[in-house]
Amino acid sequence: MNSRALLRRGFTQISDFGCDADKHDNSKYVNDPIHGYISLDEQVLQLIDTPQFQRLRHLKQMGSSYYVFPGASHNRFEHCVGTSYLASTVVKGFAQHQPELGIDERDARCVTLAGLCHDLGHGPFSHVFDNEFIPRACPGKTWSHEEGSEMMLHHAIDENHIDIDEDDIKFIKQLIRGSSKPVGDEKMFLFDIVANKRNGVDVDKFDYIQRDCYNVGVNSSYDFQRLMLNSRVIDDEVCYNAKEAFNLTEMFHTRYSLHKRVYSHRAAKAIEFMIVDALLIADPVLQLSESVTSPHMYQSLTDEIVRDIERSTVPELREARDIITRIHTRNIYKFVDEYILPADMASIANSACINEAKIVGYRSDNDDFVERDVLIDFCLIHYGMRKDNPVDRVSFYSKYNTAERFPISSSLISLCVPEKYEERILRIFTRTPSKRGQIQGAARRLMKELSSSIVASSPSNSSAHITPNRGLTLPNNLSLSPAKRRRLDFGKLPGEDK
Questions:
Q1: CB contact at 8 A, 317 and 282
Q2: pLDDT digits over 305-364, tens only?
Q3: Rounded to the nearest 5 degrees, what angle is found at the Cα of 206, between the Cα atoms of 201 and 211?
Q4: 3-229 under CATH 1.10.3210.10, yes or no
Q5: What φ, ψ does residue 126 adopt, rounded to 5°?
Q6: CA 289 from chain center: how many Å?
Q7: Rounded CA separation 250/247 (Å)
Q8: Which of 50, 51, 161, 259 is a good FRET partner for 447, with 20 to 30 A between their CA atoms?
Q9: Domain limits of the chain?
Q10: Which residues are designated catalytic?
C-alpha cells in the first residue's frame, strides 16, 4: 500500500494545521521504492539540503553487510527520509481522527523532524563505529550514535541558519532518544512514534525492516501499513487493534530473523572485525575517535574513510591498507566455531570467562597460534526486549470499544510462539585462516571444560553440557584448492614471515 492508498484511508501527507499555499508550493516529492511518492515540505527540505544531512548518502544502512549482500547498497539517507514520512503520516492521522488529543502544528513538526534526524549521528559503517570501534579506541568512554545525532542536529541548524525554536530543538532531541516516562508537559504518546521505549513498535522499525528486506531479497511476513491504519491513542499511549496482535508478533519475528540471517552474518562479522582493525590502526594518524566531540570533523567522517586509507601513502597506515586489500580480494578473517549458549551458561558469556588468552591456554603440543590470531564475538539476538516478549508490552483495543486498552497474552495470539525470546551466541574467528583448525580444537577443549565445571558445581544444570556442532567441525585432513592455498599464504599478518 503506497502513500496514495494511505490518503484514501484518511491519512494526510500535507498538514491540516492551516499551512498556507506558499508552503504547499515549496513542497517537493520523491519517489521511494518502499513508500511510493513522499511529500517533503519546506521545513523538512531545509534540513535535508544541508551538508550534515547529505552526509548520510555516504553511510550504508547495513554497514559491512553490503560486502555480503550486494543489494544492501541503500544508505541512511533514504531510511531517514522514509522514517520522517511515516512519522508525519502517523501523527497527522492521529490529529485528523482523534482531534481530542490536541495535536498541534508544533507536535507534528517536531515528530516529523525527529524521524528525519534520528540517525544523523551514525559513524562509518553505522553500528560498527559506536558499538565496536569507539569502545576499543576509547576504553571507558560511553558514546552512542544518538548523542552524535544531537550534536549534528545542532551543527546543521547553526551552520545553515535554520530557524527552529530552542524549545523545539530540545523536544526533537527527546523524541530521538525516546522515553517511557513523562517528559515535562509533552504528550507521552508522541514518544511512541519514532523511538518507542515502551515496546519497540515505532516507525523507525517499520521503515528499516521493510527497506532492508526489500534490498537484500528477504521476504517480509508482516504488514506495517496495517499496523499504522489500525492504531489509535488511548490513555496517552499508541495502541493497536486486537486483530493486529499476530501481525505484531510477525514484525518482531522478522526483526529477529534479519538479525539472525543478515545483520550478524558470519562473513559480515568477519569483515566488521577487519574494518575495526583498520580503523584502530588509522586512529592515531587520522584522529577518528576524536571526531565524536567535533561536529566539523564528524561531518566528513563516512564509509569513505576506507577509501581515504587506501589512497594514503603514509607509512603508518600500511597495515591498515593491507587489511583493506584483504577485504577487496576476499581474503577475509575466517569463522572458526559457534556455540548457542544455554541459559544456564549465561554467566560465562563474557570476556572474563572466554577470551583469546584462555583459548591459547588450551593449545595442543603442535599448535602455534597466538592471541593475535583469535577473535571472540559475543552476540545477543532477541526480539527487541531482551528475554521478554515485546508483544506482551503492547496495548490493544477492541473494535467494539475503542476507548479501553488492554494487553493480549501470547497464548491467545498463537500456541506456536517461542518459549524464549533471546539467545546468546559465542562465535570465534581468526585473523589467520591457516590456523583455523588449531583454534577450533583449542576452543572446543575450553568449552568442554567450562560446561563440565558448571555441571559439577550444580548437577541440576544438566543442560549446560555443550555439544559441538558437527556441521561446523573442521576435518583434520582439510584439503584446499591451489587458489585457497595461495590466499592463506597471502593472508599472513603484516610483519609475519611468509
A1: yes
A2: 999 999 999 999 999 999 999 999 999 999 999 999 887 777 788 888 899 999 999 999
A3: 150
A4: yes
A5: 55, -120
A6: 20
A7: 5
A8: 259
A9: 3-229
A10: 145
